[in-house]
Amino acid sequence: MNAEDPAAAFRIEAGELLEQVEQGLLDLGHSLADMDLINAVFRGLHTLKGSGAMFGFDALAAFTHHCETAFDRVRKGQVPATAELVAVILSAQDHMRALVEGDAPDADGEAILARLQHALESASGAEPPVAEPGADRQGWRLFFRLPADAMANGTNPLMLLDELRDLGEAHIVARTDEIPPLPDLVATQCHIGWDVTLIGDISREDIEDVFIFVMDDMTLELEPLGDETSDDTAEADSCAVATSPVADTPQAGAPSSAAAASAAKAGESVRVPAERLDELMDRVGELVIAQSRLSQLAHDGDDLVLRSVSEEIERLANELRDTMMVVRMVPVASLFSRFRRLVHDLANDTGKQIALVTEGESTEVDKTVIERLFDPLVHIIRNSCDHGLETAAERAAAGKPETGTVRLSAHQASGEVLITIRDDGRGIDRERVRAKADANGLIQPGQVLSESELLSLIFHPGFSTAAQVTNLSGRGVGMDVVKRTIESLRGSIDVASTEGEGSTITLRIPLTLAIIQGLLVRVGNGSYVIPLAAVEECIELSLEEDFRSRGRSLINLRDRLVPFLRLRELFATGTKPDTHQKIVIVAIGNERVGLVVDQIIGNHQTVIKSLSAFHSGIATFSGATILGDGNVALILDVGQLVAMGQSVDTEEKIHAVG
Amino acid sequence: MTASILTVDDSPSIRMAIRIALTGAGYSVQEAGDGVEGLAKAEASRFDMIVTDLNMPNMDGLTMIRELRKQPAQAGIPIIFLTTESDADMKSQAKAAGATGWLVKPFVPEQLVKVAQKVLGR
To answer: What is its EC number (chain A) (predicted)?
Structure first.
């Protein structure tokens, strides 16, 4: 496992480097003017600093930086190499060794640096590089022509144009005047120039960054757009970046422009603690509720002015709510990036070659959803890596690339986010699923199952197909927990699999948890909300049918028997049924159940309030909401009701009540 | 489709860091320890991008880039070389040899990934 630890590899390498530096320094002590030795020592220090910084040895990098700077001056002839300097660096080098091992007292380092400073006393220092301020607005007009061999050397002009487009609104016109006649044309050479007008708040560095690799040899004319003030024209002249004088700019410019870019970003966004957002969301929820009360009042009365004000407020409240939703959205990139390490570790532990490919990282989801998606995704990815993907040898034998791929992608589709986890492994072994389900009594022997029914068996509690339990997955607390978590997010989970080609698991998650579209119904004297996403259809239950079906609680819906629950009885309202009762058919996955209600009131924007701690044990309700008239409506937990409707046990209980 | 990248460096730790950074970003990575090996691997299979150090034993990066660019099959394949801030001279040499771009050491993985995305466009 250590073979995969770059830090450990660096430690070994650093030891060798320090050895070289030490040799160089010792030799240098005898011949202080030897440039080769000075260069060798400098290179050693330089590499040590650079690699140290890459592998997290920041203290080492910072300390070595000082020594390197000192030696750079020697190298450039600004300071002569002295015996004192060599001695200081030698002792510094011991300190570096301690830093690599991670047990160096800070005081030692400071003492050495002080001595180093003393040794360098004779020299004068200057720290000039400051980037020009790039406070340009509006946009740029630029013309560029790549060197003829740019394409052969791997630069794709189309990508440069794409990068420019990413900066802002771009109008691009190709200049074809330098294309030679056909007989002289070399296909691999690039003769087209491009005139580009870029509109937007773009700094010069941003544009130069696009061309960073070709800047030295290309033609680039760059001038700011806009107000024809004398100031601007003067600047335009100085802006015409020609060929050679830029030779050094990209290196010096790159870090400073990166800093400028991040500074610009910091200015555009504000970090807000999550609780404040939650608070704000709460307030918006209250506002939506108050607003619906207001609109009800306005509609009950005859006051036209009040009504128009109320409509105005309704519009504003809805907009505010929508904006608030967007504020709470976080790109899934933050979630996805956490799996890189996981897959990396899994590859190590299983000895398989696994590549994780992520797509759609910019898809945005409510932050609460993101947090709660982490565990289920870990489980699914583990399953894919552990059960799904084969070892390199097995893959090679099956004619697949040795590296297995787990593809994690997200995209948004009408109020939902679809997250798919796809692997190109062996797929789900249907025979084994069947045998296992048989053994666990989940299905009858010989029972005919559709493809999707068979596959969805893996979501049954206590189901695990791994022939032998590995330390990664297969603890038997597998996919059923995943399924429950996803359903608690009001999402759904689907699995598809082709044997030998891999499996795909699709999660559908609602964009937000705070507000849902609900169907408002009345049962007895109480109002209840059924999440609209779960509602399939509403049908009428006439009195005769009600009588006919009594004792069975099953209705025939297009040749399928659907169990139903009489909510009036379940909630023991003690009221008489309406003459025209309705059945709301709700579904979770493939399971459906009918809920008998007295009246369907209509659509309702439901701001979800969680139940108090005293009521959190009640499974039938997932929360509550406040209606326009100030009354409270409970939100039905469809998942629970479906499970209840499907189980015979509760059916009997209901009968006992009825 | 996953882009495949060849990394050529004599330092195992740098190679490892490059591999981890690039595979982490979804690329598939192969490694070579010097220019000779890099050249052989590049000729054996087509890569979408090559990342190479310049100072290496047996065959240095410059020579390898020149050799690669001599072959029509390697035309247009982006070659990124690793350099240090102090090596302005090396940079122009490498560019003249046919390199596409460079990355200044020390770099953080994100920079490498950014460069890869820049030249690969994905």
So the answer is: 2.7.13.3
Domain span at residue B83? 4-116
Instruction: Report how far residue A204's alpha carbon sits from residue A199's, in angstroms, rounded to the nearest whole number.
Output: 13
Cβ–Cβ contacts within 10 Å for residue A393, how many? Answer: 10
Topology (CATH) of A6-123: Four Helix Bundle (Hemerythrin (Met), subunit A) (1.20.120)
Q: Is residue B122 in some structural domain?
A: no
b/e code A277-294 from CB counts within 10 Å (16+ = b): eeeebeebbebbbebbeb
Distance from CA of A552 to the nearest CA of B (A): 55
User: Side chain identity at A485, as an amino acid letter?
Assistant: T
Q: Write the secondary structure of A69-91 as one string of H (helix), E (strand) and C (coil).
A: HHHHHHHCCCCCCCHHHHHHHHH
Task: Write out the two tokens for B71.
Answer: 């072959």
- By C-alpha distance, the chain B residue nearest A14 is B13
* Architecture of the CATH domain A330-465+475-510: 2-Layer Sandwich (3.30)
Among the ranges given (A428-432, A462-466, B70-74), the one the predictor scored with the smallest mean pLDDT: A462-466
Contact (Cβ atoms closer than 8 angstroms) between residue A512 and residue A366: yes
Partner A, chain B 59-98, Cβ-Cβ below 8 Å: 69, 75-79, 84-86, 88, 91-92, 95, 98
Q: What is the pLDDT of residue A246?
A: 37
State ipTM.
0.82
**β A581-588/A535-541 pair status:** antiparallel
Amino acid at A126: A
Computed over every residue of chain A, the mean pLDDT equals 76
**Domain spanning A274-327, CATH architecture:** Orthogonal Bundle (1.10)
Q: Using CB atoms, pick whichever of A49, A152, A247 lies closest to residue B75.
A: A152
* Min Cα–Cα distance to chain A from B3, Å: 11
Given 3.20.20, 2.60.40, 1.10.287, 3.30.70, which CATH number is that of A139-224? Answer: 3.30.70
The answer to whether B36 and B68 have CB atoms below 8 angstroms apart is no
pLDDT of res. A235: 38
Interface with B, mutate which of A12, A45, A207, A213 (most B CBs under 10 A)? A213
Local structure of residue A617 (DSSP, 8 states): T
**Looking at the 3D structure of chain B, how many domains does it have?**
1
In-domain check, residue B29: yes
Tell me the CATH number at B72: 3.40.50.2300
Judge whether B7 is closer than 8 Å to chain A, CB to CB: no
Look-up of token digits 């579209």: A517
Task: Say whether B118 and A163 touch across the interface (CB within 8 A).
Answer: yes
Q: Give chain B positions within 8 Å (CB) of A162.
A: 121
CB contact under 8 A, A358 and B26: yes
The string of pLDDT tens digits covering residues A577-634 is 787 888 999 887 667 888 889 999 888 877 777 777 777 677 788 888 887 777 889 9
Helix axes B109-120, B12-24, angle to 10 degrees: 60
| In chain A, domain spans | 6-123, 139-224, 274-327, 330-465+475-510, 515-656
Residue A241 scores a pLDDT above 60: no
CB-CB: which of B13, B69, B98 is closest to A13? B13
pLDDT at A462 (0 to 100): 62
> Which token pair is A612?
């108090």
Closest residue in A to B70 (Cα–Cα): A152
> pLDDT tens across B47-84, in order?
999 999 888 888 888 899 999 988 888 888 899 988 87
Map residue B28 onto helix, strand or coil: strand
How many CB atoms within 10 Å of residue A367?
18
Residue with the bigger pLDDT between A535 and A124: it is A535
Judged against a pLDDT cut of 60, whether residue A647 lies above it is answered with yes
pTM metric for this prediction = 0.41
Q: Is the pLDDT of residue A107 over 60?
A: yes
